[in-house]
Amino acid sequence: MQVARLGYLGIGTNRLDAWRSLATDILGAEIEERTERGAPALALRLDTHPYRYLLIESAQDAPPFAGWEVDDAATFDALAERLRAAGADPQPADATECAARGVAGLLRFRDPDGYPNELYHGAIARAEPELPHGGFVTGELGIGHVMRHCAHYPEAVAFYRDVLGLRTSDKIVWDGADATFMRCNPRHHSLALINECLGMASGDTNHIMFEMRALEDVVAAYDRVLARGDPLIMTLGRHSNCRTISFYFVGPSGFGIEIGHGSTLVEDEAGWEVRQYDTTKIWGHLLPHERLKELI
Predict the structure, then answer these.
(1) pLDDT above 90 covers what percent of the chain?
(2) How would you class 163 by CB atoms within 10 Å of its CB: exposed for 0-12, middle for 13-18, buried for 19 or more?
(3) ∠215-216-219 over CA atoms, to 5°?
(4) E strands, 196-294, where?
(5) Cβ(77)–Cβ(83) under 8 Å?
(6) Residues 96, 176 within the same domain
(7) Does 129 map to a domain?
(8) Exposure of 199 by Cβ count < 10 A (0-12 exposed, 13-18 middle, 19+ buried)?
(9) What is the pTM of this model?
(10) Which residues face 196 on adjacent strands?
(11) Residues 6 or more apart from 151 whose CB is under 8 A from it?
């Protein structure tokens, strides 16, 4: 029994207008105004799923909650029992909230570092949104990924592996950072866990990722970010492990947003070899000051 995909991310924020602007001007997502547990919210639609991102108005920014999807009620019930046995204290949502979310069942729990998660099944498919580009890589793979910093790093890896059923794709260890990349389907990773490093601590989100179907849409988004003047974290580059071509910038909630294309698919489970890398990149992914030195 395991989760099938990272179905959505929810983000509590006091900068709802900035997220609305980013979703429209940079990402090209379809936006729906809604209410989430009594608070104003935006639902970002990327495909036929009811939503892929929920931006919920709150007094202050909070760590994003990850929505893990399972394919049927039997798996949902089995994982709920496994969460209880692991001491994660899963709390079910009531029928009214499930109906508002467009799912058949939903429960909430936290991981060993206190990061909020949700487990759900039975999302009601809707019409494909009209997007101004080639679209996002989602569907059976779910959405891109989230990277979280952990104080209880080994315990967190064990939790997502042993309780939710994620598998390790590979690791990258560099400059005091130690990251484990985990998958629940052929997408190279839906979750990346990393120790407290790079000036970030447990409770901090390193970044979230959107994967585009077309490389040209990544480049177009890169140009729009530069034109708007959003703070750049890393220039266009290619990752060493998942081979994604991407760039990073600072989002409205302060954590990074990665937009990329071409992530590796693990289609041969039996033949996949878990490797450890000592660098995050093959080329590019320069920090802004490194890029400046190149130009001088």
Answers:
(1) 93
(2) buried
(3) 95
(4) 205-211, 232-239, 245-250, 256-261, 275-277, 281-284
(5) no
(6) no
(7) no
(8) exposed
(9) 0.96
(10) none
(11) 113, 196, 201, 202
